[in-house]
Specification:
Blueprint lengths: L4 H20 L1 H10 L7 H9 L7 H8 L4 H8 L2 H4 L2 H20 L6 H15 L7 H7 L7 H26 L4 H10 L5 H4 L6 H13 L11 H17 L9 H20 L19
Helix pairs in contact: 1-10, 1-15, 2-7, 4-5, 8-10, 8-15, 9-10, 10-14, 11-13
């Protein structure tokens, strides 16, 4: 079943907050602290939780797959990650953290028939995802499926967003956009103010050098404003990302994807309404592009 790219993007935007709960919920920080990770900032647990499905990999692998984060930042948080706690314990902690967080966030929706229906639809899409060439998606798809609907939904959301993320890296590279350029161009396109992207911890010199490289290609102005050509490239990247993310959704009919979107709105509003997630992020959720 073929779906429009607008539907593919909408489903990502609805599922992303479900997945992102892991990186912001107090319950997930508590689980990480019990393992010995620092929780004064989100990055120590972020790197451990997100990389754990890959096994005890080092900074070089994480840097390659996460793509747009400063290599120094990756080194700092992953070089000793598995000496703090084993991969197995981290996976247990992230499941426990998500479990506790979603039980609280979903309130009366927890255990509802609608939640189970949403989880089962999302699982069908996730299980149909071809993970060849998609290392982050493959690592998460190899994990056992939980039976509880809220955890099943989270697992499906995670596989699908990592599948999309793997494809996004391909799209960036296909357009000769490197890690720092990816952030500079996204900021220039209006995804979020530049200061939001500072969380990726590139230096001012590295950011400026990436801007200069993009300016030489005519993609941004010297002051960082995006050019018409730059917006065309950025739109092309997002279109290819959506196209590469489309395949898993072919497992569902048009009516089923519409139903899933309908079912996801209330729990996502619960999550967003709790003030758990940042109001602005580097992902550009909410941005629309003209693919015509």
């Amino acid at each position: 079943m073929t779906h429009g790219l607008g539907t593919i993007r909408q489903l990502w935007q609805l599922l992303e907050p479900v997945h992102a709960t892991l990186y912001y919920a107090p319950e997930a920080f508590e689980q990480a602290a019990a393992l010995g990770y620092a929780t004064d900032e989100r990055w120590p647990s972020y790197f451990a939780y997100r990389a754990a499905p890959l096994g005890p990999v080092g900074p070089h692998v994480v840097n390659a797959l996460f793509y747009s984060l400063s290599p120094r930042m990756v080194e700092r948080h992953t070089a000793t990650a598995w000496r703090t706690a084993s991969v197995e314990r981290v996976l247990e902690a992230r499941s426990a953290g998500v479990d506790r967080a979603l039980r609280k966030l979903l309130g009366d929706r927890f255990g509802s028939p609608d939640l189970r229906e949403a989880a089962e639809l999302a699982r069908r899409a996730a299980e149909s995802a071809d993970t060849a060439g998609r290392p982050m998606a493959a690592a998460n798809a190899a994990l056992p499926w939980p039976e509880e609907p809220h955890l099943m939904l989270w697992q499906a959301a995670t596989i699908l967003r990592e599948h999309r993320g793997d494809g996004h890296v391909v799209a960036l590279q296909a357009h000769d956009i490197g890690p720092t350029e990816a952030l500079v161009s996204h900021a220039a396109a209006g995804a979020a103010p530049e200061e939001v992207f500072s969380s990726r911890q590139w230096t001012d010199e590295e950011w400026g050098a990436a801007r200069e490289r993009l300016a030489r290609r005519g993609l941004v102005e010297a002051d960082g404003r995006i050019t018409e050509g730059g917006m065309r490239v950025r739109t092309s990247i997002e279109k290819l990302t959506d196209e590469l993310a489309a395949a898993p959704w072919r497992a569902l009919t048009v009516a089923e994807t519409a139903r899933l979107a309908e079912l996801l709105v209330p729990p996502v509003l619960d999550i967003v309404g709790a003030g758990l997630l940042p109001t602005q992020s580097t992902l550009g959720i909410g941005m629309t592009y003209d693919y015509t």
